[in-house]
Amino acid sequence: MTEVRWLDEREQRAWRSLMVMQDGLSEFLDRQLRTRCGLSDADYQVLAHLSEAPDGRLRPFALGGLLRWEKSRLSQHLGRMEKRDLVVRERCLTDQRGSVVVITGRGRELIEVAAPQHVADVRSAIIDLLTPAEMRTLEAVGDKVRARLEQLESGNPGIDPTE
Amino acid sequence: MTEVRWLDEREQRAWRSLMVMQDGLSEFLDRQLRTRCGLSDADYQVLAHLSEAPDGRLRPFALGGLLRWEKSRLSQHLGRMEKRDLVVRERCLTDQRGSVVVITGRGRELIEVAAPQHVADVRSAIIDLLTPAEMRTLEAVGDKVRARLEQLESGNPGIDPTE
DNA sequence: AGGCGGTGGTTCACATGTCAACCAACGGCT
DNA sequence: AGCCGTTGGTTGACATGTGAACCACCGCCT
């Protein structure tokens, strides 16, 4: 592996375009949520998962799994959300170590206002611009990349075709 | 606008797939850079732009434009990079308010080691998995979305087709 | 029973990003 | 020259993310 395969024109353009879209999208969606509902994107994700769970309650480790968050991040964030009365932590009855996160009434009200606006934003920023074919491609690419990342992160370096 | 157009199955899948890919990709690339070169993704972007600029020097506001960063973020980040001897700030001769950021020798060494590895990571995580058609689609979608975001952020709410 | 590695969670110190306030210099205008 | 709105940049207070250390409890094993 002596020489570097730089990105050619096409590859550059696709990559940059994707990155810029990425930044722009998350910045836009986060700002909309924040200014219109006082929720960060992180808050939204947490509330969304909780509101879909039975009784609006989840064990932190389960929530962490859904969000793919580090446990310390989750703990910190839940602490802040608890102060703002969006969630409460209760002791877990079946496991004395753990706790259960529960969405509050206020949390539920907020997510129910935020969700339709958020979906509308996602639609108007991207989904409604896509043809069915583009949608399929995005899904396929996303899945391929995720699978590849799991492979890479599990210590498999991938096969060098020149080998 | 009384009723909400939720995302249907296809739309959900495409959207989630994109978001997950997005998170996974940036996390992966950032971690690779960090562990292998001691550079964050932000550091990398800054050094990359500087190293491509004539004499490795840029006015902060120009750099900020390229990166699409808030000026305070840039200022804070440059401060940290200066402490690590990756860049230096010099007074600007033509504008007494401003300064010029210059990449240091060490900064240049680092980016020259990091760049090939970074490109290899980008390739192996995504670019090399894509067909030419997929690449074109990604570019097209990215461009559409960016254009749309600019429209949205310039106060244009978009047209409601039911109107 | 009692030892013990693994798990669920929290906490601390620290890196990073954001917003608003601030300051000095620029440059156009009279 | 002198005023004044704008621009380039920094700063401080604060919100958020990360990694490591820590703690209590679980559950298995003998």
TrEMBL record, chains A, B:
SUPFAM superfamilies: Winged helix' DNA-binding domain. SMART domains: HTH_MARR (SM00347). It holds the Pfam family MarR_2. Residues 11-147 form the HTH marR-type domain. Coiled coil: none annotated. It comes from the Bacteria. PROSITE patterns: HTH_MARR_2 (PS50995). InterPro entries: HTH_MarR-typ, MarR/SlyA-like, WH-like_DNA-bd_sf, WH_DNA-bd_sf. This is MarR family winged helix-turn-helix transcriptional regulator. It comes from Paractinoplanes bogorensis. The lineage of its organism: Bacteria, Bacillati, Actinomycetota, Actinomycetes, Micromonosporales.
